[in-house]
């Protein structure tokens, strides 16, 4: 519970969970538990993909809503689509689902003023930036759209959401690479804890599946390049044969609400956000420290903020993107945190999984989507699997729910997000009333 008269921090969460069982996060969650994968070969999208060493991505499936797919025309008016970048369109859809499930669509002035939006993206409107640059180079100034700058700005995602629903509370956008989604949720909770809002709609979105973007990550040697013919096994966190991440797209949004406010209106409460920790590696542009000191510091801060001991952590939703260095560093950090005095006695009792094997790495949207999965893990007492984990690498001796979901009591969970530039964040969730 949020106590605005003390330094204690504890924020309640209303999890995005669409009312229709086969839509949105519910469908994704069910597919995740079934070990399915959303990664495909994308050469057909653009001939330039054929030149790249990585030709795969986790894409939002296009099609009718009734089949669990996404069609912008079912969610947005033509004028809205014209003004919005694709990442903002994804975020708008996720926001609608989250607000519908939370039962929160206020009309009173006081409620609108006390409701805010915290929505970020890592890269944002990449395809249109590229297209506009090429068009400008070829045909000059008069071919630049008057909507170019508004669609370029990442904070316009939050802006469009606030304008649609009339939310006049904090309007905030984080853009911290792959930590963006987690930072958005943690920052939103602090807006509530400091009395700036009663309700916050928070999350992250990404849509940068473009030859130049993927080419850039490939040149940085970050991507999986050995599985173009077998895309569904390409993302393999913790596996000895992992060789890079797979870019994904999509959005995740959740409604955060102050406890007494939620109770007063009879809201459905899925879990509690107990703690939020941030840190910096101060080390390298793209690589973490070998032993994951930055990740460890973020997790320790989240538990300190939550006033919980390492022994209480039942599950860690790892950032683990399927890179050789990153997975090893995070694994080392998790073991340092959770093993020994005040923690678990055996590595096999440390429960860790990465959902990126199934959905790829959504960059700025990753932390938000994985926060949703973490809340569902607590709410349903199910640890989602790490798919494509066939052969454990040396030093990986925790329980990773390899290829199969595990039913287990989950009262407290951490979810980690780390990004280029050495930015780290960890969120601590618990069951309501713990």
TrEMBL record:
Residues 5-431 form the Ketosynthase family 3 (KS3) domain. Belongs to the thiolase-like superfamily. Beta-ketoacyl-ACP synthases family. Pfam families: ketoacyl-synt, Ketoacyl-synt_C. Coiled coil: none annotated. The keyword Phosphoprotein applies. Signal peptide: none annotated. GO terms for molecular function: 3-oxoacyl-[acyl-carrier-protein] synthase activity. It comes from Aspergillus mulundensis. Keywords: Acyltransferase, Fatty acid biosynthesis, Fatty acid metabolism, Lipid biosynthesis, Lipid metabolism, Phosphopantetheine, Phosphoprotein, Transferase. One of its GO terms (biological process) is fatty acid biosynthetic process. This is 3-oxoacyl-[acyl-carrier-protein] synthase. Pathway: Lipid metabolism; fatty acid biosynthesis. InterPro entries: 3-oxoacyl-ACP_synth-2, Beta-ketoacyl_synthase, Ketoacyl_synth_AS, Ketoacyl_synth_C, Ketoacyl_synth_N, PKS_Beta-ketoAc_synthase_dom, Thiolase-like.
